[in-house]
Amino acid sequence: MFGFYRFAAVSPELKVADIAFNTAEIIKTAQECTKNEVSAVAFPEMSITGYTCGDLFFQPALRQESMKAVKKIAGSFANSSMIIIVGAPFFWQNALYNCAFVLQSGKIRGIIPKTNNPNYREFYDKRYFKSGETVPEGTTCLKSVPFGTDLIFSCDHNFSFGVELCEDLWGVIPPSSHQAIAGAAAIFNLSASNALVSKSQYRRNLVQQQSAHCLAAYIYTSSGVHESSTDLVFDGHSMINQNGHIIAENDRFHRKSSIIYADIDLKKLQGIRLCESSLGDAKTGKCFRDILLTEVFASPGVEYAHIDANPFVPANSAERDIHCEEIFRIQTAALAKRLEHVKAKKLVIGISGGLDSTLALLVCAETMKLLGRPMYDILAVTMPGFGTTDRTYNNAVEMIKFIGAEFQEIDITDACLLHFKDIDHDSDVHDVIFENVQARERTQLLMDIANREHGLSVGTGDLSEIALGWSTYNGDHMSMYAVNCAVPKTLIRYLIAWVAENSKKKLGAILEDIIATPVSPELLPNDRNSKINQKTEDIIGPYQLHDFFLYHLIKYGAEPEKIYYLATIAFEGIYDQTLILSTLKRFIKRFFQQQFKRSCIPDGPKVGTISLSPRGDWRMPSDACAELWLKRLDDIVL
């Protein structure tokens, strides 16, 4: 469904050289996978015989029974399209190979020999096995079965995969690198990696890195504790990765068979490969045979996938802190460079007491620390108007004073009233003119003050507002440098909270109250209780939804119906489907209609993988139509 495929990695209970027992256990666990509607399942290296058979691999009886077992496993699933990948020794032309057998619909569809046989310290694989590199390209065996390291398997245009075995991953250039270049979106690794102190973390890092290098799903499974313990112990480590991120991982040293599942979005990986990598330009120097398999059932759902409701915000608090520090340093370094280049004497910034201007002021303050300049080289201007509340005003003033910036207050009410009179607009009509006049008045003041002070006007608008066009053209849309332009609204709260946690108590308290204040441009008069009368999210929908939509649309070009489906999963119990659908339609309409604003936005630093700069990441005509995207949402029945 929508490009998701369900993968499984099994580390089965086994008995060394007991092929009947091992075969029965493989069949039993594979049947569990069919019940769970798995597309493909992998078993460890030498899962039919056990990896630690030693010189028993030279025994014909072992090899012959092993081949019978491979055929028995295949035959047990003759009525299933699920792909099963098992490990067994294979004797061919007077040599023995450590192989992965790809099985589907009752048949052996391909055999992949291990390329790199370790022969150091505790390993002596070359005593038994030849490298798969000795098998000529285009080789077949068992009458018509493809055999070699030159195989890529394809089920449909989304799902193609390659296979490597254990040490292959540890080599300088793993076979999976060539397979990914040749089009494999998923890599299966059948392993028998033994346990040593700290080895599991190194192995985990290795799998994550290769998954990221290949922009692929990487399904890794390894032999467990029932391998021979004569000299070594095996921990049965299994992992399923997606583009460097672990989606599923088992507990090691299990005594019974272990199965892990993951729903992997191969279509997303395909999209990222297309728009966010140079993989298409890479050359492998190796010719591959494309083995066409029966189409497998796509994943019936995403219960084994991680659909993050806040894709811009790391869920792990420690990782989030690192993320926030890195972003803050990028913003600060960028502003410092621009400030030094233009030789500005002041940073001029408008402070409203809202999230965006707060983050921008904090970046300005850190920039002055970085450059060894005094805080009064920041000129922070409050410009109260018709909708300014005591809460935001007081927070703005207190924050400016605590930081030590130069403070200036200019009430824009009279200037706006005069402007209404000049353009013959009734000031009692609170329409878009009423709002935009205020935004442009504030921007004009900041620009003129910056000229007066030989300074730089710092913009405060964020990525979410830029995506939605939620700004006044040539008002808050414009500045001399925009430090928040690639930071989405959902992340800004966490950035400010991170600064609050690392600040003195008084500043921390001010920042916490700013975080708790509803998002508002404060352009409409307040209610009778002097409370905010204009809440942005009541008008355009939750920013959490908009950021979710933005991520999936831009990151890998997800179709609108897929974005809706993922949102219903991610926000189940938080937002109802009607709100999600209506907000998504509003997002798409505004994203297309407001491109003309993005086509001429100021410079600003990219901090994450998504930016809407017309000079860098996003080039879109200002008059492109949204109908194609909206029409696909019209077919959704709630």
What does this structure look like?
The chain has 20 helices and 20 strands. The chain has two domains: 4-292, Nitrilase/N-carbamoyl-D-aminoacid amidohydrolase, CATH 3.60.110.10; 317-634, HUPs (Rossmann fold, 3-Layer(aba) Sandwich), CATH 3.40.50.620. Helix content is 39%, strand content 17%. The chain is elongated and about 100 Å long. The chain has 638 residues and is α/β, with parallel strands linked by helices. The strands form four sheets. It has a seven-stranded mixed sheet. Strands 5-4-3-2-1-14 form a six-stranded mixed sheet.
Task: Explain the layout of strands and helices.
Blueprint: E1 4-11, H1 19-35, E2 40-42, H2 60-76, E3 83-92, E4 95-104, E5 107-113, E6 140-141, E7 145-146, E8 151-154, E9 160-165, H3 167-170, H4 175-181, E10 186-191, H5 199-214, E11 217-222, E12 238-242, E13 245-249, E14 258-265, H6 266-275, E15 289-292, H7 317-342, E16 346-350, H8 355-371, E17 378-382, H9 390-403, E18 406-409, H10 413-422, H11 432-452, E19 455-459, H12 463-468, E20 481-482, H13 489-501, H14 505-516, H15 536-540, H16 543-556, H17 560-570, H18 577-593, H19 595-598, H20 627-634
Parallel strand pairs: 1-2, 2-3, 8-15, 9-10, 10-11, 16-17, 16-19, 17-18, 19-20
Antiparallel strand pairs: 1-14, 3-4, 4-5, 6-7, 8-9, 11-12, 12-13
Helix pairs in contact: 1-2, 7-8, 8-9, 8-13, 9-14, 10-11, 13-14, 16-17, 16-18, 17-18
